[in-house]
Amino acid sequence: MLEVSNKATQNLDLAVSYLRSGELVAFPTETVYGLGADARNPDAIQKVFQAKGRPADHPLIVHIADAQQLSEWATRIPASAWLLAASFWPGPLTIILPKHPSVSALITGGQDTIALRIPKHPLTLELLRKFGSGLVGPSANKYGHVSPTLAAHVATDLGDAVAAIVDGGPCAIGIESTIIYLSNQQPVIMRQGAITAAAIEQILQTKVLVNSMPQTSIRTAGGDESHYAPNTPVYLLALNDIIAYAQQQANISVISLHSKPVDLATNIVWQQLPLDPVAYAHDLYANLRAHDQLNNTAILVEQVPLTISWAAINDRLTRASVKK
Ligand code: TXA
Ligand code: MG
User: Fold this and answer.
1) Is the CB of 140 inside a 6 Å radius of any atom of ligand 1?
2) From the CA of 61, which ligand is nearest?
3) Which atom of ligand 1 is nearest the CA belonging to 92?
4) Which of 22, 69, 253, 317 could form a disulfide with 269 if both were Cys (CB 3.0 to 4.6 A apart)?
5) pTM above the 0.90 mark?
6) Where are the alpha helices (DSSP H) in the chain?
7) Which domains are present in the chain?
8) How close is the Cα of 199 to the center of ligand 1, in Å?
9) Ligand 1 mean position, distance from CA 12 (Å)
């Protein structure tokens, strides 16, 4: 059962005082909940890695309240970054830029670039303004696990590690921000999200590459084998294969775009989701977590359409699922 944590709060002054004393505070965003810490405090940053169980070479995103703060964290900022900031911030876009020399190598995993974004959530924007500086904010889940879209999800994964969870209700979008790399000649999307390549191309008037599984040494979004994954194995399958599997196995969960065939056993938990990528993304992680709670032997997820508007969802489902 999901329980409301006694660490959940909307008291931003309290949250700021915890952050100033080097404690961790989870915060809501429009994408997923972040695990916040003072981005200028090395001890606090180290607590983030420790709490998540995240390898030190996986860099963190720094969240800021105002685009003018970009120059405190990045250097050699191209005009394209200002343009994207003006067009999409606050919003689900993370921009990777050359890092400012003052930025701790702990944040960037030793790389010379830094990821920055202004999240779109009124409580967190107010928190960032009151705090007055940047907050590191990886998704507030254990490393490799499903990202949290409710304060209760954060409490389940990291309740003991945080001083407070700013409860901003369910996240509006439900999957992580689009990450764009601007330090090269041609912009590259390194993680797909609600802001599409087409939307960015329209603003920048240039072609954008989509490379969500970079073959470079750069550590980026979910480059590891298993990411965004529940404990129960997830299989991404065509509807026919799901039905064939379900006819032979009991105690499985199904997430489908179709209704349950009438002849299937009653002990198969069948959830039908809407054929609408916005609604699907909104509840995707909450659904995966809820199915995981049932302790079934597998979660079978029906393959979603292979169209642009489903690309970010396809990416997450592929990474959450068992590799064949
Ligand atoms: O929507 C989001 O972006 C959420 C909310 C809380 O803002 N945050 C989030 O953070 O998803 P995280 O740490 O779970 O994912 C950020 C990804 C990581 O996979 C990290 O490797 C990549 O961004 N990243 C961060 N800095 C980078 C850099 N300098 N170069 C390449 N990748 C970077
Ligand atoms: Mg994450």
Assistant:
1) no
2) 1
3) 1
4) 253
5) yes
6) 12-20, 42-52, 70-73, 79-88, 105-108, 122-131, 151-158, 197-204, 239-248, 277-293, 311-320
7) 8-215 (3.90.870.10), 234-320 (3.90.190.10)
8) 20
9) 24
